[in-house]
Design brief:
Largest sheet: 5 strands, mixed
Distance between the termini: 61 Å
Shape: elongated
Structural class: mainly beta
Length: 126
Amino acid sequence: MVIRRLALTGMLLLPFTAGAAEMLLDVRPLVCVGKADEPCPLNAKVSWHADRQLCLVLARDPGHPFTCQQQTSDFPLKLSLNGNIRLQLLDAVSLEPVAEREIRYLQSSSQSSALIHRRLEWSLFR
C-alpha cells in the first residue's frame, strides 16, 4: 500500500530502465583523497553484468567510451581527478544511461592551522 502511494505521487525511486534489475555496476574505490590543489591519481576497478552490450563512459564525455562489453570483471580504470566525476553505463545501441556511479574527490590538508591552534591551546590539566 505504501509503495503504491509513493508510486502514485512520483516519490518512488526506480532504476533507469526496466532492464536495470538484471544489471549491476560496481566501482571501487568510490573516493579519491588528494592533497589540496593537486590532482588525485585513481586506479579503480569497474565491474558489471548485463543482458546486453553496455559502454562505460564519463558522464561529461559520453562520446569517448572506455570500453563496451556485456559484462566485465575488474576492468582497470586509471583517472586523474580534480573534482567529483560520474561514470555511466550506456546502452550500446540506444546510448541511453542504464546506471551510474559517482567518484568523489576529497582534499586533505596537512597544515590545518585552525586544528593545530586549537590543540595547542587546550589542555585537560589547566
